[in-house]
Amino acid sequence: MAAGRHCVGKKLSQRALDTQQLQAMSKRQLYAMLAAAVRNTA
Prior knowledge:
Elements: H1 2-41
């Protein structure tokens, strides 16, 4: 049973990592869009 709990915890932490990576990616995309917009208006 302890092994089963460990697997679930590992899956949850992996999902949390994936979510953080997605958020970081969207932030990068946002900054890139913002930089492009500034370049276009300047």
